[in-house]
Amino acid sequence: MPAMTAVALTDREATPVTHTFQPRSLKNDVAELVVDSGVPIGNERLTLTLRKSGSYYKGEARLILPKLATETINGVSRSTVERTGSVIIQVQFHESSTRQERDNAIGLAYSLLADGRAMVDSTFVDLGTPY
Fold first, then answer.
1. Which helix H or strand E contains 118, and what residues bound it?
2. Which of 24, 69, 116, 117 would disulfide-bridge 82, Cβ 3.0–4.6 Å?
3. How confident is the model at residue 104 (pLDDT cuts 50, 70, 90)?
4. Has residue 1 been placed in a domain?
């Protein structure tokens, strides 16, 4: 079982920003890490889980990215979540899979999401339907 440690992820800003997710909690085999924004509803969150179901190991990583706005009512300002974006990655491996097979699958997924994949970027970043 891996120990919970900080995870640093880099965005695609013109000058990339590193978002460091710090361990927050472990509940029901779900590890939660956060980037503390100072306003809990605005914390970026990363969750990781792995479960065994029959002959398969099923894992999931969720990256939850809330966008805060400041709302002022009767002169009182408060933060509110304007919208939330998320990325969900699911993996499923048979119990007879080798470590190398699993490593290759993760490597291919990593490569799929690398900057410069025109079709992937056009679909997910530019919100275009493939044709």
1. helix 118-124
2. 69
3. very high
4. no
